[in-house]
Automatic annotation (TrEMBL), chain A:
Coiled coil: none
InterPro entries to which the protein is assigned, alphabetical: SPX_dom, SPX_prot
Species of the source: Rhynchospora pubera
GO biological processes: cellular response to cold; cellular response to phosphate starvation
Name assigned to this protein: SPX domain-containing protein 3
UniProtKB/TrEMBL annotation, chain B:
GO molecular function: DNA binding; DNA-binding transcription factor activity
InterPro entries: Homeodomain-like_sf, Myb_CC_LHEQLE, Myb_dom, Myb_dom_plants, PHR1-like, SANT/Myb
Pfam family, one: Myb_DNA-binding
Chloroplast keyword on record: no
Record bears the keyword Transcription: yes
Protein name: Myb-like transcription factor family protein
UniProt keywords, alphabetically: DNA-binding, Nucleus, Transcription, Transcription regulation
SUPFAM superfamilies named among the record's database cross-references: Homeodomain-like (SSF46689)
Spans annotated as Disordered: 272-295, 378-415
Length: 250, 415
């Protein structure tokens, strides 16, 4: 239930449009429980698989859609940044404002992309857990082959997004270094902190990190094949105890 | 409770297609679990939802004959049965002639006389909510609790994205599109050459022309988008450019006008309202209010942004790491499973050889690769397994000795 709770928290904190795109973990869990342990019928299994497949379809659709948008937005941002220098004089008031806005946009854009990767990961984890429960319940061997397929699904192949994220980071350097140069003349109105760090993005990011930390803390089923605990000592503000990790994270 | 159903009951109920199905591979499937059913080549797309070498006797192929998902009978042959259950998870590009998941056909499905639950309906439920389930016998057959659970499940996003459509282009281009890569890099290709294959579609069984493959969803890449932008610019900008023109100019096989159309739409939106998602609208509004000079505040803001970046970067890093670990884990599980299967084969072989002194381990130590991967007794299991494997090697040399064997039986651990 730990995962379930964490998942719920993440969904609560997530970007509103994303809320219904996550795995229906709780419901799937219930479903597994209903499947008879003694006589797992093939029909039941088929239905179960059908459900899983439709969940996967959901993920894939959403993911690919978002990916496409990110590709477009990234390029637009890039153009915008390049043109920023052309449009205004650095001393221009508007320039600073534009700059501030752009900075914010980039950071949030970066955040959204990372959250998409997180989305992928969270759903994968949930699926793996559900499958494990199913196997445990019915004594069948559904998990392994099914997971193999999941691994190849679009929503799990996040290489491109990762690439975009890295690209975004490089795009940011000039923007932020310029920032310090013109800080004196920065013309920015006071924005509440809520507006600065886009709330749902930031919140969701934090929730995601916390979740990862919790999940890898060492549960009752921790063993050789569990992911090693996650140490984030520099993020004390996340307020999660960091535990000594037997397997250091590289 | 569900009445017990036989395999026969599980046949697709679409009377329309019963005959056809029975004449096709489907019936063949009944007899042999994993026939060489290969997936239709995915035109212009870059991934196969299913590992092609595994069975994908796919609902897709059944669907090919109707736009209604059907149930595929399963073949039970131990663990292979699991593989055989997978539908392709195929979905169409949402950009095709917007044949939305047709309301009539859903009705049509429901109108059939059903003796049994068509699990295709479950998918309908997922898509349309419980309202789709009008047919009372379905409701009656379904375990009440299942119904509730399914009602609770999120309706699949059906903004026409899960449309089933027939695209002639798709069927015809099957083989030619081996040439194409419209997708971004899969592991096999390290270069992003647009015109090269990255299709994972392997045994390109030329989909038999009768099967209108639902065109798989198109996955854009940076390079492709670049080409798109060039084309648009040549045509005078996003407002002036038409999908048709862009498509032509781009000159990419496998790309169809619907892909371009929807992409163009997204592009226009992105340009005219840069970086605007609903919550960001209010942010951009504030830009207009900017007036005061406040270097301190500017600092604060930058600091906040930096902090946000740190957290985001960290999350990204950890996600990458986690992903690697997950992939590794699965590799290992696969490996263990393989070992288990080999063991089983050897055991079977030995049994055939009438090894007289076969002793099976006591029931407490039942092992499978799943157990092996099971976090609970992982360490023990792998030790046990290697011990037994070692033992096996020794004993196989002497015929009369105890054939150390471990039986990969899995005990169900239900409640």
């Amino acid at each position: 239930m730990k995962f379930g709770k964490r998942l719920k928290k993440q969904i609560d904190d997530t970007i509103p449009e994303w809320k219904d795109k996550f795995l229906s973990y709780k419901n799937l869990k219930k479903l597994v429980r209903f499947i008879s342990a003694a006589h797992p019928s093939t029909k039941a299994e088929a239905q179960f698989v059908e459900l899983l497949n439709s969940e996967i379809e959901k993920f894939n659709s959403f993911f690919i859609e978002q990916e496409e948008e990110f590709i477009i937005r990234q390029r637009e941002l890039q153009d915008r940044i390049e043109k920023l220098g052309e449009r205004f004089e650095p001393s221009d008031a508007e320039y600073a404002a534009e700059m501030a806005q752009t900075r914010k946009d980039i950071v949030n854009f970066h955040g959204e992309m990372v959250l998409l990767i997180n989305y992928s990961n969270v759903n994968y984890t949930g699926l793996a857990k559900i499958l494990k429960k199913y196997d445990k319940r019915t004594g069948r061997l559904l998990r392994l082959p099914f997971i193999e397929i999941v691994l190849k699904q679009p929503f799990f192949t996040t290489e491109l997004i990762s690439k975009l994220v890295k690209k975004c980071e490089t795009m940011m350097d000039p923007i932020f270094s310029l920032a310090s140069a013109v800080e004196d003349q920065a013309e920015t109105k006071e924005m509440d902190s809520a507006a600065i760090a886009e709330p749902s993005i930031f919140k969701n990011t934090v929730a995601a990190l916390v979740t990862m930390q919790e999940l890898r803390k060492g549960s009752s089923t921790y063993g050789h094949f569990s992911l090693p605990p996650l140490n984030l000592p520099e993020f004390d503000f996340l307020q999660s105890p960091s535990l000594p990790s037997p397997i250091p994270i590289q | 409770m569900n009445s017990s159903l036989t395999l026969a009951n599980f046949l697709p109920v679409q009377k329309l297609n019963m005959n056809h199905l029975q004449n096709t591979q489907i019936s063949g499937l009944m007899s042999s679990p994993l026939p060489g059913i290969t997936t239709p080549v995915i035109p212009g797309n870059c991934y196969s939802n299913m590992q092609n070498s595994e069975s994908t006797f796919t609902q897709r192929e059944a669907r090919a004959n109707s736009t209604i998902p059907q149930v595929i009978p399963m073949c039970n042959s131990g663990s292979l049965a699991a593989t055989s259950l997978f539908s392709s998870g195929f979905y169409s590009s949402g950009y095709s002639p917007q044949i939305n998941w047709p309301g009539e056909s859903v009705q049509g499905v429901l109108g059939y006389d059903l003796d049994n639950i068509n699990s295709g309906k479950i998918q309908d439920i997922m898509k349309h909510g419980s309202d789709a389930v009008l047919n009372s016998d379905v409701a009656g057959l379904m375990d009440g609790s299942w119904r509730q659970i399914l009602d609770g499940m999120a309706v699949t996003d059906s903004q026409g994205k899960v449309a089933y459509s027939v695209s002639e282009e798709a069927t015809n281009t099957s083989d030619q599109n081996q040439q194409l890569s419209l997708c971004h890099v899969s592991k096999s290709n390290s270069n992003n050459n647009i015109n090269e294959i990255c299709c994972a579609a392997s045994p390109s069984s030329s989909s038999n022309a009768a099967i209108p493959a639902r065109p798989p969803r198109m996955r854009w890449t940076q390079e492709l988008h670049e080409r798109f932008v060039e084309a648009v610019n040549k045509l005078g900008g996003s407002e002036k450019a038409t999908p048709k023109g862009v498509l032509k100019l781009m000159n990419v096989d496998g790309l169809n006008i619907y892909h371009v159309k929807s992409h163009l739409q997204k592009y226009r939106t992105a340009r005219f309202r840069p970086e605007l998602s609903p919550e960001e609208e209010r942010k951009s509004a504030r830009l207009e209010d900017l007036q005061s000079l406040d270097p301190e505040k500017a600092n604060d803001i930058n600091e906040a942004l930096r902090a946000q970046m740190e957290v985001q970067k960290k999350l990204h890093e950890q996600l990458e790491h986690q992903r690697k670990l997950q992939l590794q884990m699965e590799e290992q599980c696969k490996y263990l499973q393989m070992i288990v299967e080999k063991q089983q084969q050897s055991i079977d072989q030995l049994k055939l050889n009438k090894c007289t002194n076969i002793k099976l381990p006591s029931s407490e130590k039942l092992l499978t690769s799943e157990n092996g991967c099971d976090e609970i007794n992982q360490v023990d299991a792998s030790e046990e397994m290697s011990r037994q494997i070692g033992q096996k090697h020794k004993t196989s040399e002497s015929d009369n000795s105890i054939c150390g064997a471990f039986s990969p039986m899995k005990r169900a651990r239900g409640d």
